[in-house]
Design brief:
The chain has helices at about 5-20, 20-25, 55-65, 70-85, 115-130, 135-150, 170-175, 185-195, 200-205, 220-225, 235-245, 265-275, 280-285, 290-300, 305-320, and strands at about 30-35, 35-40, 210-215, 255. The chain is mainly α. The longest helix is centred in the first third of the chain and has 17 residues, at about 5-20. The relative contact order is 0.16. This is Peroxidase.
């Protein structure tokens, strides 16, 4: 890594220590008990075993985002889709094998998840520097944080020590990951099942301030343009219809936040107030519940409040332990469990 990157990352680490002192003073570790085995997450987990881990990941994420700004949202989404299925165990990265059906072909992931090659490159670098030390699950968590930071959003200190699963669940991916047309009660049910709150739901939805979605994921939203509700923005919905009617709706992409699509900010919530949430599951945060509407409005008024709640929710989500009874492993290749490596 260049001297410039090393200096930049040192500055970021100093900022972390100041900005997140309150978090680290309250809790330095969290535990997940799995069939009698305890997995402890902690700050500075690789301080002795692989001190280069965060600078290495940061440099790769920086390169990926410079090459393709959309990659920031893609890497952040990988972490979400991992944690919502049996905890943060890198199961989302596993390829199908003769003996395993992975999660990549699940409906929420198929032809949608991106960034696997970036994770591969990070893992290969870390395996060279610190062989079989850093888990793929921790790489996902750190890369998600760095993606937000490099897009102008807040940073936070990532707890580490996750283990990688040797199995995956396509069924759980289909059932647990919130769909793009979910109503508030459905969204909240999926979040509460994981121990996440209504506040966490609205804060984490703010990740949609970056990234894109295919026309097929918001087709129901486009067709909901005959309502007399004051929250319906006909001009916006008609612009989506025009976009998706002019080309292949299976490949055409729209920005989740059409105002600042590559910047992590609170514009997503501003868009909701204007009736310009792209997905149905976005706009219902304003229209489907007075509680969620109040939180949305508070984030519009105070970007700092959104950032604080988002950081806390990311740490909370990132501590979700696997629910498959496995204590896990450190994969040598993030796409394949060690037992299947050649």
């Amino acid at each position: 890594m260049t001297k410039y990157l090393a200096t930049l990352y040192l500055i970021i680490l100093i900022n972390f220590s100041v900005a997140f002192a309150n978090i680290t003073n309250k809790t330095t570790s969290s535990e997940a008990c799995i069939d009698g085995a305890t997995i402890v997450l902690s700050f500075g987990f690789y301080y002795n075993s692989c001190p280069e881990v965060e600078p290495i990941i940061f440099s790769w994420v920086e390169k990926a985002v410079l090459d393709d700004p959309r990659m920031a949202a893609s890497l952040l989404r990988l972490h979400f889709h991992d944690c919502f299925v049996n905890g943060c165990d890198a199961s989302v990265l596993l390829d199908d094998t003769q003996n395993l059906v992975g999660e990549k072909s699940a409906a929420p992931n198929l032809n949608s998840l991106r960034g696997f090659e970036v994770i591969d490159a990070i893992k290969a670098d870390l395996e060279y520097v610190c062989p079989q030390t850093v888990s793929c699950a921790d790489i996902l968590a750190i890369a998600a944080r760095d993606s937000v930071l490099l897009s102008g959003g807040p940073g936070w200190e990532v707890q580490m020590g996750r283990r990688d699963s040797s199995s995956a669940s396509k069924t759980a991916a289909n059932n647990n990951i919130p769909g793009p047309n979910s109503d508030v009660s459905t969204l909240l049910s999926k979040f509460q099942t994981l121990g996440l709150s209504l506040q966490d739901l609205v804060a984490l939805s703010g990740a949609h301030t970056m990234g894109k979605a295919r026309c097929s994921t918001f087709s129901a939203r486009m067709n909901n343009n005959n309502s007399n509700s004051p929250d319906i923005n006909l001009e916006f919905l008609q612009s989506l219809q025009q976009l998706c009617s002019e080309s292949d709706s299976n490949t055409t992409l729209a920005d989740l936040d059409h105002m600042t699509p590559s910047t992590f900010d609170n514009q997503y919530y501003v868009n909701l107030l204007a009736g310009e949430g792209l997905l149905g599951s976005d706009q219902v945060l304003l229209t489907g519940s007075e509680e969620t509407r109040e939180i949305v409005e508070s984030y519009v008024d105070d970007v700092g409040l959104f950032y604080e709640d988002f950081k806390k929710a990311m740490v909370k989500m990132g501590s979700l332990g696997p629910g498959n009874g496995e204590s896990g492993e450190i994969r040598r290749n993030c796409r394949v469990a060690n037992g299947f490596n050649s």
